[in-house]
Design goal:
By secondary structure, the protein is α/β, with parallel strands linked by helices. Helices cover 23% and strands 35% of the residues. Strand 3 (62-72) and strand 4 (75-84) form a beta hairpin. It is found in: Cytoplasm. Its EC number is 2.4.2.8.
Length: 179
């Protein structure tokens, strides 16, 4: 039994993911040259994408991480908890959140409000995946890798019950696995 047996369809191949990371990295390089942005990865899902993305950003950047939670099983509870906050001040910094997927928008909206309250110079978002079908809160996303339809996706950092993060691609998890 392999992890691949739990996947109904591959949504994004490893090659397509790298192509998207490269394209996004080039846009970010152009927009942030001479700004020394702080890239903030939201743990744990963003680690693989962030690791690939920063390879294609050809300007000075700093990185930090936040660990936030709002999920219970496969659904967002809407109750955002900060498990690990940033290690440095965001005041007068250009902040670029790095996300694996934007689903309801609730978690990101709450975190953006907090960072703006802390007086960041600017706050933008880069996400590999955008799933607007589930959006509950309007979130302005400047950099989007690709839009995906509704469905529970795993792999490349995305998980179900802390499993499947290690897949090198993104796939649709078979419903019988999570229902």
């Amino acid at each position: 039994m392999t992890l691949r047996n739990d996947i109904s369809d591959i949504v994004l191949s490893e090659e397509k993911i790298i192509s998207l990371a490269k394209s996004l990295g080039e846009k970010i390089t152009e927009d942030y040259k001479d700004k020394n942005p702080l890239l903030v990865g939201l743990l744990k899902g963003s680690i693989m994408f962030m690791g690939d993305l920063i390879k294609y950003i050809d300007t000075h950047v700093e990185i930090d991480f936040m660990d936030v939670s709002s999920y219970s099983g496969t659904k967002s509870s809407g109750d955002v908890k900060i498990i690990k906050d940033l290690n440095q001040s965001v005041e007068d910094r250009h902040i670029l959140f790095v996300e694996d997927i934007i689903d309801t928008g609730q978690t990101l909206n709450a975190i953006i409000d907090l960072i703006e309250y802390r007086k960041a110079a600017s706050v933008e978002i880069v996400t590999l995946l955008d799933k607007p079908a589930n959006r509950k809160v309007d979130v302005d996303v400047k950099y989007v890798g690709t839009e995906i339809p509704d469905g529970f996706v795993v792999g490349y950092g995305l998980d179900f019950d802390e499993k499947y993060r290690n897949l090198p691609y993104i796939g649709l998890l078979k419903p019988e696995i999570y229902q």
